UniProtKB/TrEMBL annotation:
This is CdaR family protein. PANTHER family: CDAA REGULATORY PROTEIN CDAR. It comes from Peredibacter starrii. Gene3D superfamilies: 2.170.120.30, YbbR-like domain (2.170.120.40).
C-alpha cells in the first residue's frame, strides 16, 4: 500500500514538472515579437511598355506575431507579383501602386503592422527599337614596333530596344574597351557590348567578333620546319606538306633563348569534323601572349581525309 502511494506521488510530481515545462515553452513561443521582412517585387509589364524610371524592387513588411513562427517566416523567400496590366497602365503612364498587406501569406496569429514603402511610384514609356552601329574602343598601348590595321567588327551593327525617349537619341553603341596589350596573332577576339543604360537591351544574342591585323616594321625571329598537327577526330589524314615556317616579332628579353621560343609555338590544321576527301584547310599558329605572328608559309595546305 505504501509503495503504491509513493508511486502515485512520484507520478504526480513527474506530470506536474512536464506540464510546467510544456507551459513554459508554450508561453515563451507564444510571446509576441516584432520583426522586419524584406520581400522582392516582380513586375508584369504590358507588352508594348517599358519602365521610364527604375522602379522599387523591394518592400519591407513590419510584422508582429508569435515567436514560434518568426524564423520560418523571416527565412522564407517571398516574392510579390505586381501585374501592371491591371493598373490602367495603358491609360496612364505615371501612377502609383498600393501594396496590400494581405498579399503576404502569414501563419495564424501574425499580422502586418506596416509596409515600407506602401505606395510605389510607377513611370512607364512606350517601347521602341532601332538598329545602331557599334563603336570600337581601345585601352592601353600596343607593344613597340607593332601597329593595328584592318579593324572590323562583325556584325557592325545591332538592334536595340528600350524606352522611346532613349532610343530616339541613340546614335551608336560602344563595345567594352579592347586591351591592346593583350592582342596576339589570333587576328580575331570576342568582344562585348557596353550598353549605356540598363533599360536598353539587345533584341537577340549577338556573337560579336573583333577582327584585326598586327603589323610590324620587320620580323626579328624566323622559325622553319615546324611540324603541322591535325585538329580532327579522324585518324586517317594525309598531306604532302608536313611543316611550315613562321616569321615572328619576339620581345628582346625572350629572343635570347631560341629553344624556349620554338617549344612554345605550334602549327595546327583545323579540319571540320564532317570533312571527307580532298580538302584545302587553313593553318593556325598558337603563340604565347607576348609573341606576335607576322607571316606563316604556307597559309593553307591540301589534305586527304578518309
Amino acid at each position: 500500500m505504501k509503495m503504491r502511494n509513493r508511486m502515485k506521488k512520484h507520478s504526480l510530481k513527474f506530470i506536474s514538472i512536464f506540464l510546467s515545462l510544456f507551459l513554459w515553452v508554450y508561453v515563451l513561443n507564444s510571446e509576441k515579437v516584432k520583426f522586419e521582412k524584406t520581400v522582392t517585387l516582380e513586375y508584369i509589364l504590358p507588352v508594348d511598355m517599358m519602365f521610364a524610371a527604375k522602379p522599387q524592387h523591394e518592400v519591407t513588411f513590419m510584422i508582429e506575431g508569435p515567436r514560434a513562427f518568426v524564423r520560418t517566416v523571416a527565412e522564407r523567400e517571398d516574392r510579390l507579383v505586381i501585374d501592371l496590366n491591371r493598373a490602367n497602365a495603358r491609360k496612364q503612364l505615371n501612377f502609383t501602386v498600393d501594396i496590400n498587406p494581405a498579399q503576404l501569406n502569414l501563419p495564424f496569429g501574425m499580422v502586418v503592422e506596416r509596409v515600407l514603402p506602401r505606395r510605389l511610384p510607377i513611370k512607364l514609356e512606350k517601347k521602341a527599337s532601332k538598329i545602331v552601329p557599334l563603336k570600337l574602343q581601345f585601352a592601353g598601348h600596343l607593344p613597340e614596333k607593332l601597329s593595328l590595321s584592318n579593324t572590323v567588327l562583325e556584325p557592325a551593327e545591332v538592334e536595340v530596344y528600350g524606352p522611346r525617349s532613349l532610343i530616339t537619341k541613340l546614335k551608336e553603341i560602344p563595345i567594352k574597351p579592347v586591351e591592346l596589350e593583350s592582342l596576339t596573332g589570333l587576328n580575331q577576339v570576342p568582344v562585348e557590348v557596353a550598353l549605356p543604360d540598363e533599360r536598353l537591351t539587345l533584341t537577340s544574342g549577338y556573337d560579336i567578333k573583333f577582327s584585326y591585323q598586327l603589323k610590324a616594321a620587320s620580323a626579328n625571329f624566323t622559325l622553319k620546319d615546324l611540324p603541322i598537327k591535325f585538329l580532327s577526330h579522324s585518324r586517317k589524314i594525309n598531306s604532302s606538306v608536313k611543316t611550315a615556317s613562321v616569321k615572328l616579332l619576339v620581345p628582346d628579353k625572350i629572343i635570347k633563348n631560341r629553344s624556349n621560343v620554338s617549344s612554345t609555338i605550334q602549327v595546327w590544321a583545323d579540319i571540320p569534323d564532317d570533312a571527307r576527301g580532298r580538302l584545302e584547310v587553313p593553318l593556325k599558329v598558337v603563340l604565347p601572349p607576348s609573341i606576335h605572328l607576322l607571316e606563316i608559309s604556307p597559309k593553307t595546305i591540301i589534305v586527304n581525309i578518309q
